[in-house]
């Protein structure tokens, strides 16, 4: 299925290919906890920017490996390049239309990143 994702103001728009029923990651690290991001990590081949890449600002912290992208107009982080999966994209499922038929949320202990990051690596691999 092809989903369309966007920021709140519509400046940033993309498409992502994913199943109708999704399993997503709810991370409790400092940035995800505050932003409420629900992660759908996909290979870059399943993600297509449509418009607004020039509207994105980036934020990097700690190791500087993750590239947190957000709309410079409305501030929404609808997708980014995660530290755990630099070969993939993490899409915020809350930014998708239509919403998936079913969402299963799996908690991820991002507060203890080094101990658990390896459990996400498979998500950006081609099936």
If you had to describe this structure to a student in words, what would you say it looks like?
By secondary structure, the chain is mainly beta. The protein has one domain (2-124): Metal Binding Protein, Guanine Nucleotide Exchange Factor, Chain A (Beta Complex), CATH 2.170.150. It is built from two helices and eleven strands; from the N terminus they run E-E-E-H-E-E-E-E-E-E-E-E-H. It has helices at 30-35, 113-116, and strands spanning 2-6, 13-17, 21-27, 39-43, 47-51, 56-59, 67-71, 79-81, 88-92, 96-97, 102-108. The strands form three sheets. Strands 4-9-8-7-6 form a five-stranded antiparallel β-sheet, with no helix packed on it. A hairpin with a 7-residue loop joins strand 6 and strand 7 (67-71). The model has no long low-confidence stretch (mean pLDDT 94).
Which SSEs are present, and which pair or pack?
Elements: E1 2-6, E2 13-17, E3 21-27, H1 30-35, E4 39-43, E5 47-51, E6 56-59, E7 67-71, E8 79-81, E9 88-92, E10 96-97, E11 102-108, H2 113-116
Parallel strand pairs: 3-11
Antiparallel strand pairs: 1-2, 1-10, 2-5, 4-9, 6-7, 7-8, 8-9
Core attributes:
globular, 11 strands, mainly beta, four-stranded antiparallel β-sheet, 127 residues, Metal Binding Protein, Guanine Nucleotide Exchange Factor, Chain A, five-stranded antiparallel β-sheet
**Count of individual beta strands:** 11
Radius of gyration: 14 Å
What share of residues is helical?
Answer: under 10%
The percentage of residues in β strands lies in 35-45%
Provide the CATH architecture.
Answer: Beta Complex
């Amino acid at each position: 299925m092809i989903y369309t994702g966007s920021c709140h103001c519509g400046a940033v728009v993309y498409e992502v290919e994913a199943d109708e029923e999704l399993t997503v990651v709810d991370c409790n690290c400092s940035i995800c906890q505050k932003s409420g991001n629900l992660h759908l990590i996909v290979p870059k081949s399943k993600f297509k920017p449509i418009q607004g890449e020039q509207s994105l600002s980036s934020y990097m912290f700690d190791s500087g490996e993750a590239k947190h992208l957000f709309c410079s107009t409305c501030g929404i982080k609808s997708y980014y390049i995660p530290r755990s999966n630099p070969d993939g994209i993490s899409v915020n499922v809350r930014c998708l239309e239509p919403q998936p038929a079913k969402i299963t949320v799996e908690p991820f202990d991002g507060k203890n990143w080094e101990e658990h990051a390896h459990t996400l690596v498979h998500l950006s691999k081609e099936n």
